[in-house]
Structures are given as C-alpha cells and as structure tokens.
Amino acid sequence: MGFSVHRDNMKTEILSGLTTFTSMVYILALLPAMTAPLASIGFPVDSVFTATILATIVGTLLMAFLAKRPFGQAPGLTLNIFFIETVCLSLGYPWQFALTAVLIEGLLFVMLCLSNLRKTIFEMVPASLKYAIAAGIGFFIAMLGFKNSGLLADGTVFNHLDTLATPSSMLFALGLILTSIFSILRIKGGLLLSIILITLLGIPFGLTTMPHDIFSMPVSPAPLFCQFSWDFLLMPDLWVCVLIMLFFDVFDSLGTIVGTMACSGLIRKNGRIPHMTTIMLSDALATVAGACLGCSTVTTYAESATGFAEGGRTGVSAFVVVLCFTASLFLAPLFLAIPAAATAPVMVVAGLYLFGAVRHISLADPKEALPVFVTILLMPVTGSITDGIMAGLLSYVILSFLSDLLKRRKTSTVEEDLQTHSSQSS
Q1: Which end of the chain is more exposed for a tag (fewer CB within 10 A), N or C?
Q2: Burial class (CB in 10 A: 0-12, 13-18, 19+), 337
Q3: Which of 20, 78, 31 is nearest to 383 (CA)?
C-alpha cells in the first residue's frame, strides 16, 4: 500500500482514512434517495444502498493496493444525476440501457489509461493550470461545505440573515471555529475530532438522531448485478451517452487527482505525478466494477482532500476507508446519524488546504493569469470541476494561439522594415 515506516506515520494514515470516510458517508443516504424516482420503471431501489457500498469498497481497494494513494472512490453525483434525470427520465430509456452505457464508458476509460493518450491528456495541462485546478477544487469543496450547512441556497447565493440563526448554521459555525483552532495548533486528528464533537452536540439540538437499531442487515444487490443488454449497442443514443459519461469521468477524475496532489507537494519538478497511470486505471476499473454491481459511474471523490489535509499520503488511508464502508454494511444507522453540520466545516478547511496551491502560480504573464482565474472562478460558480478545467484549457489555447500569432506578425513587420531601410540605404 506504499507505506514506509521511515517516511510515513501509521496513526496519521488511520486518522486520514477515518476523516475521508466521514466526509464521504453522506453518499449512502443520498444515492438511494436520488434513485427513488426510478422505482416507477422497475429499478430495484432497495438494492442501491448495498450496491453503492460494494462499488465504493471495490474502487477504494483498487486505490489502496494498485495506486497506493489515499483517495476514496464512490458513484459520482454529477454522473448519477445524468444517469437518472437525463438518460432514464428525460430520454425515457430503461435503466439497463444506462448501466450498459456505464460499462462501455468504463472499458473505454481502461483502454485510455493503458494507452499513451492518457499521458497526452495529462501533459497538455500546463503547470499553472494544474495548480489552478487545485485552488478551484478548494473553492468547490468549500462551497459544498457551506451548501451542506444550509448557509448557501441555490448556487452560490447566501440565505437571508434572518434564516441563518438555525441550529444547523450555529453548529456549522462552531465546527468551523473548532477545525480552525485544531488546524492552527496542528492537532493530529483534529478534523475527525471536530466531526465527533459536533455530532455529539447535535443530539440536544435535534440534528443528530440516535438510531433505535445500530445493526442492520444489508439488502441483496442481486437484482442489480450485471443487468446489461447488448441489444442497445446498435442504438446511436447509447454511444452519445457513453461519450458524455467518458468526458465527465476523465476530466472530473483528472481534476481531483491533479488538484489534490498538486497542493500536497506530490507533483515532481517536471510536472509529472508519481503513480498517475495506476491512479487513473484504478478509477477506470472501479467504473467497470460499479457497472457490474448496478451503480452509475464510480469516480475519485474530491472529499478525499479532507484526508490529505490530515496528512494521509499512502494506500493505508484508502484501506481504512474500505474498512469503514465495510462496517457500514451492518452499522449503517450509526454512520448515517452524522449530520451535515458536522462534516461541512471539515470540507471548508480542506478547501483552504487545496487553495494553498495558488502560492505556486505566477500571475505576471496575462496569457497564463486569465486561464488560471477562469479555472478557479468557474468551478464553484458552475458547480462542476469539468467545466472549470475545460474553460481554463480553452482560454489558455486561444490566448496562446493569438499571442503567438501577434508575435509572428510583429516579427515579420520588423524584418520588413529592416529590409526596406536596408534597400533605401543602399
């Protein structure tokens, strides 16, 4: 799992894994709720909870043993919305159609990771944008924290002041103070300690509802297992869905991985990231496994930044996440009792940790400064890591092309003037 007794600290890795888990566990309550509308078309909603945990375990195990990095993986929210709202409800295709598209997208992603094209995509991102991605994801995660706390309404709009004096908002503010103090004092496990304290304080406020039964038996995921149909392969809409999923999966994962590792000092001087191939391959294989288990696209979670902020650097942290999700198969009521007000402050502090990557960015050259600004701005505003990356890359390419074109014209004009002056002199 990449752990070295001379370089790494076991206690730090364990705390990192626990922090990442508590930041991700909300997905277990959210995904079954999101898939509820599909019950009308025969989707086995009762099996989603178990399938989500199994897909998360498989994906994060790949990160632990193949990539040896502290990333957590689970079905992604953006692509889950595309899976449900667009493919199944808007277009009216059966859920087996959507799962077939996820499987093919995952297989294409695997092929991409094993080819030189992945290296080309990674290396086409300039160093300044790699650090801008980290800063942008920092704002993105912090915004999610504020939104989960109830302080943000739609998009990036703050609620009116008279609605902020709620138990959730007050506990969030207290949690933000605690995580800040723990971070300043460099207390190991401070982020996890803050989550525990706010969860306990949430009991008298009615935010933390203690479950009647701590143990629960998981529902069988069998109704979702390998529900593919090859009859869909001849349908053009399937391949459109596959390409859309592949696009979002590649750039969402790339942005999270590059951004998180950039601010952790794990990018080499030549701009390369150690184990990048195995990290991306783990993500791709997790999507294939998730499709077989009946889940939407599995992706690397930006919430992994909370574990990085705790100091996690190896696959041990990811393995701790796996153990926690395995326990949640039988202890789901206990873990789902953690309120959003407890995890939201940690996400804000993790956002600050990622934003620290701006110290590596030079804004002296406008050609690089504007794409950096666009990348950082659009991630939280649009609520999409992919949109921010694409806007930054496009603006960088356009500005570089125009800049080079103007330089060539200026150079040619100077040369023509020199030739004219030389001919007149002679």
Answers
A1: C
A2: middle
A3: 78
Burial of 270 (0-12, 13-18, 19+ CB in 10 A): exposed
Q: Amino acid letter at 114?
A: L
* pTM for the model: 0.81
Residue showing tokens 């949430």:
202
Phi, psi at 73, each rounded to 5°: -125, 145
Residue with tokens 């309550």: 29
Query: Residue 101: what residue type?
Result: A
> Lowest mean pLDDT: which of 48-52, 103-107, 257-261, 276-280?
257-261
Contact by Cβ (8 Å): 22, 192: yes
Helix/strand/coil (H, E, C) string of 135-189? HHHHHHHHHHHHHHHCCECCCCCECCHHHCCCHHHHHHHHHHHHHHHHHHCCCCC
Buried b (16+ CB within 10 A) or exposed e, 146-175: bbbbbbbeeeeeeeeeeebebbbbebbebb
Write the pLDDT tens digit of every residue in 266-301.
776 666 777 888 999 999 999 999 999 999 999 999
Question: Which bin fits 75, alpha (ψ -120 to 50), beta or left (φ > 0)?
Answer: beta
Q: Which two tokens stand for residue 6?
A: 């001379």
